[in-house]
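Run: sequence + 5'-deoxyadenosine -> complex structure.
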Amino acid sequence: MQDVYGLIDKLQETHALSKEEWVQVLESRNAAAASYLFEKARKIRETIYGKDVYIRGLIEISSYCKNNCYYCGIRRDNRNAERYRLMPEDILDCTDEGWRLGFRTFVLQGGEDGYYTDDLLCDLLGKIKSRHPRCAVTLSLGERGEASFRRLFEAGADRYLLRHETANSEHYAELHPSEQQLETRKACLAALKRIGYQVGSGFMVGSPGQTTSHLAEDLLYLKQLDPQMVGIGPFIPHHETPFGTYPAGSVELTVYLLGLIRLMLPHVLLPATTALSTLDPQGREKGILAGANVVMPNLSPAAVREKYSLYDNKLCTGEEAAESLQALRERVERIGYTVVVDRGDYR
Ligand code: 5AD
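>> structure
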């Protein structure tokens, strides 16, 4: 058996590990091995993307959701969640403001809300693209049918984010009610790839019931899917959910996983997520220094930000707010990286 350094070297050379090796590289980690990993992760990210950090303007279009994920604050059964939905005109205003600020990618994210029909979204995509022809639009609207994904792609959507949440079906069933199935999620991701989207998947770190073996399966699944983007962040409890009293995931493990994912998928677009910054004021910096190259400030109208409450204390001000881009730029500069005005496509 190789030690943790040998496994990190192997991952750097072959971009793959076996399930047993993933478990070992996770379980035998320590601070020195993490520094060793992060240095390699930064080097590889810099050969592909230089020192650039890409920004995405996140527009949270709806807090209505028909799903009932046990971890999520906007789940259907949360009677105390304040619901809102943005109208197309509101969303267009957000993109205008975002473009002015320097955003060249807009992420439209929301709960699974039937209000946003294909017709509505196609019309909206056409308007966004005609007002800002050089922007990229990412959708993050949950599961839809393949025909719907196809229409949205043809209407101008470039990318789609849909985390798999966990690649183990028993664990998936611990996190979701039975009407939600891992197979459906995976079929959506396969369809999105087939259609030609730049696809993002990912999972929460430290979700209730998660084991190292589950994480190894997540990494194997990501390797097989070969997505252009991977979003991971620590689980954070929301008090109005069945998991309200569970402990939050670990920042240290999340950052270590970012480094591993960078070595496994060298070209991947990898955000330092809001959840990471929510748990640790230095989370964004730690993520970038571990190989992350994307940040996603909040571009939603200020009046609704508090209502898109996936977990407790979710940040939506300070450097997480699109209008504080200058402060974000300065913080990124301080660690030797540069926020760029660019679509930030996969290379
Ligand atoms: N903690 C951390 N992340 C969460 N998400 C949903 N609820 C939580 C939570 N309690 C993540 C899911 C989802 C993304 C939009 O937000 O992974 O895919």
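>> summary
The mean pLDDT is 97. Residues 52-211+235-248+269-340 form a domain with the TIM Barrel fold (CATH 3.20.20.70).
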